[in-house]
Design goal:
Blueprint (H helix, E strand, L loop, with lengths): L6 H11 L3 E2 L1 H13 L4 H9 L2 E2 L5 H9 L4 H13 L25 H17 L7 E11 L2 E13 L2 E9 L2 E2 L18 H7 L6 E10 L3 E10 L8 E3 L4 E3 L2 E9 L5 E9 L9 E13 L2 E15 L2 E14 L8 H4 L10
Parallel strand pairs: 1-2
Antiparallel strand pairs: 3-4, 3-15, 4-5, 5-6, 7-8, 8-11, 9-10, 11-12, 12-13, 13-14, 14-15
Helix pairs in contact: 3-5, 4-5
Length: 348
């Protein structure tokens, strides 16, 4: 079944289906049309949140759509929809082909893929060494079960390859509370350690070609799927209530700029979480973009999403980084400059 609709027609159909039960087959067809038409991720996610299914939606179907380019907000909405459909009849889904694609560029040869990964590895392992000392604002929106309950504004100082977080406000109120003692989920390591952990030789990550993607305002990327088994994992996940820590196996995707082999994005998701550990799902996505420091361009974190689930408790942090500037002993950030007026646009 091939479905290809103009964007306006697609939105009308999504709105109509939001009022009635749909099959998994119909859902998949419209999600692929949304991908093909480059429909706004946030807008599609809002329609999905209002949908009702007549059949069970499984994780494999969602992962396939994610691999085809479905946006992160829509993926989150589909996971929520899957949870509500868990007790519905299993769909007998026919093989649904994606909309007729443009002629696909062939993947790089095995030799080229090795060179690409070798260059990305060198970039990742040396990434922090090439960063200047700087400060920036880190703004975090905290969600529980899709409802925002808090926000954290922090000054992040990066000096001699080390990160330091100073809390400025919690829920828009000034505070001197230590960052590590803040309530809810928090995130650190965006400035190199998470990326480095994927490419460290001791991690022994396994890479395989996935596809081509165009993200970040038209930047063409090689996309590789990777996996890390538990014995070699350096990813630390902590249950902040019990202070128990684990290092799970994980998998994800790495997006490498086809022009200069810098890293544009990576995702990682824990697999085979121990049944005794309270956190049963953990995943993150980090996007990089060009930012200027003292007039010079650097590839730096722009946004991140951290998502953890404990039973029915669903925690998500949306993090954005702003106002990078060169570090000095008297460097300051004006409060009014640190809070983003509007969230950054969704990036495909």
């Amino acid at each position: 079944m091939r479905i290809r609709l103009p964007i306006a027609a697609l939105l009308l159909c999504l709105a109509a289906f939001a009022q009635a039960s749909v099959t998994v087959d119909q859902l998949v067809g419209f999600m692929r049309s949304a991908i093909q038409n480059k429909q706004n991720d946030k807008q599609v996610a809002e329609y999905v949140k209002r949908m009702k299914l007549s059949q069970k939606l499984d994780d494999k179907t969602i992962e396939e759509l994610q691999g085809e380019g479905l946006g992160p907000k829509t993926v989150e909405a589909l996971r929520a929809l899957a949870a509500t459909s868990a007790n519905l009849p299993v769909a007998e889904v026919k093989k649904v082909e994606p909309p007729a694609p443009k002629p696909q560029e062939p993947p790089p040869s095995p030799e080229q893929q090795k060179k690409i990964l070798d260059a990305a590895r060198e970039y990742a392992l040396n990434y922090t060494k090439n960063l200047p000392n700087f400060i920036c604002a880190q703004y975090t929106k905290q969600y529980q079960n899709d409802r925002q309950y808090g926000s954290i504004l922090a000054k992040l100082t990066y000096y001699e390859q080390h990160e330091k977080y100073d809390t400025i406000t919690v829920n828009d109120k000034p505070t001197h509370q230590e960052y590590d003692s803040l309530p809810g989920s928090i995130s650190t390591g965006e400035f190199g350690s998470m990326l480095r952990g994927i490419f460290e030789p001791m991690t022994e990550a396994q890479f395989e070609w996935c596809c081509w993607r165009t993200i970040h305002n038209g930047r063409k990327a090689y996309v590789f799927r990777f996996s890390v088994d538990q014995p070699h994992s350096a990813w630390r996940i902590e249950d902040r209530d019990s202070h128990e820590k684990i290092s799970p196996a994980y998998t994800g995707f790495i997006y490498i700029d086809a022009k200069d082999e810098t890293i544009l994005r990576f995702t990682q998701e824990a697999v085979d979480m121990p049944s005794t550990f309270r956190v049963n799902s953990a995943k993150t996505q980090l996007d990089y973009d060009i930012a200027e420091i003292s007039g010079l361009p650097f590839v730096l974190p722009a946004s991140a999403v951290m998502h953890m689930q404990s039973g029915k408790d669903d925690q998500k942090n949306e993090i954005t980084f702003h106002h990078y500037q060169k570090y000095s002993a008297d460097a300051t950030l004006k409060f009014e400059d640190m809070v983003p007026d509007n969230p950054p646009p969704d990036k495909k």
